[in-house]
């Protein structure tokens, strides 16, 4: 879990407008992508410009919603002078409300706002990572993987014992044991062919 202690270091304010514009540009790109997908799934051949004319409202709504989300998260952090899950919940409420406006019904607006606020707030509260919460040190990735390999390395004898001989695994004395097994099982002796002439 994330640390939620009341004692926090000095907060460094961030530019909320810059963050809003950056998130708005990301939202415009994702809206263009969604609009192009919706346009390509149409039954008729509509042409290239219908991405902007027929389904272009998606570009505007996603740009404004995600831009407002980024702006609100940063502005809330600046006003509260701390970075925690409440900032993400406030941003999610504003972004979800704007995204719900496309449905033109108040229950949809409230539902989208509450849903996105809950999802983003819980996500930030639990650490804000998809792969689990842990404090990653500033250790070099190569050194970390080398240390993990050395920690998990098994001796070759143990590996051969578990996997077995053959299939390209030839420990010392393998050829003699193979000849003995063939002689016991099939009753004839295997004479190895020498690669060099005496």
TrEMBL record:
<dbReference type="GO" id="GO:0016491">
    <property type="term" value="F:oxidoreductase activity"/>
</dbReference>
<dbReference type="GO" id="GO:0045271">
    <property type="term" value="C:respiratory chain complex I"/>
</dbReference>
<keyword id="KW-0999">Mitochondrion inner membrane</keyword>
<keyword id="KW-0472">Membrane</keyword>
<keyword id="KW-0560">Oxidoreductase</keyword>
<keyword id="KW-0830">Ubiquinone</keyword>
<dbReference type="InterPro" id="IPR039205">
    <property type="entry name" value="NDUFA11"/>
</dbReference>
<keyword id="KW-0496">Mitochondrion</keyword>
<dbReference type="GO" id="GO:0005743">
    <property type="term" value="C:mitochondrial inner membrane"/>
</dbReference>
<protein>
    <submittedName>
        <fullName>NADH:ubiquinone reductase (H(+)-translocating)</fullName>
        <ecNumber>1.6.5.3</ecNumber>
        <ecNumber>1.6.99.3</ecNumber>
    </submittedName>
</protein>
<keyword id="KW-0812">Transmembrane</keyword>
<keyword id="KW-1133">Transmembrane helix</keyword>
<feature type="transmembrane region" description="Helical">
    <location>
        <begin position="58"/>
        <end position="79"/>
    </location>
</feature>
<dbReference type="GO" id="GO:0006120">
    <property type="term" value="P:mitochondrial electron transport, NADH to ubiquinone"/>
</dbReference>
<feature type="transmembrane region" description="Helical">
    <location>
        <begin position="108"/>
        <end position="127"/>
    </location>
</feature>
<feature type="transmembrane region" description="Helical">
    <location>
        <begin position="20"/>
        <end position="38"/>
    </location>
</feature>
């Amino acid at each position: 879990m994330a640390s939620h202690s009341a004692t926090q270091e000095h907060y460094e304010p961030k530019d909320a407008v810059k963050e809003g514009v950056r998130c708005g540009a990301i939202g415009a790109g994702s809206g263009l992508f969604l609009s192009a997908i919706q346009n390509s799934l149409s039954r008729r051949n509509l042409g290239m410009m219908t991405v902007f004319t027929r389904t272009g409202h998606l570009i505007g709504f996603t740009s404004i919603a995600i831009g407002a989300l980024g702006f609100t998260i940063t502005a809330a952090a600046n006003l509260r002078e701390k970075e925690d899950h409440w900032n993400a919940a406030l941003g999610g409420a504003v972004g979800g409300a704007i995204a719900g406006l496309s449905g033109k019904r108040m229950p949809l607006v409230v539902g989208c706002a509450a849903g996105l606020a809950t999802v983003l707030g819980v996500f930030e509260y639990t650490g804000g990572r998809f792969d689990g919460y842990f404090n990653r040190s500033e250790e070099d990735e190569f050194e970390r993987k080398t240390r993990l390999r050395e920690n998990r390395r098994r001796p070759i004898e143990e590996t051969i014992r578990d996997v077995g001989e053959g299939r390209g695994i030839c420990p010392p004395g393998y050829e003699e044991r193979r000849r003995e097994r063939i002689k016991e099982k099939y009753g004839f002796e295997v004479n190895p062919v020498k690669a060099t002439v005496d």
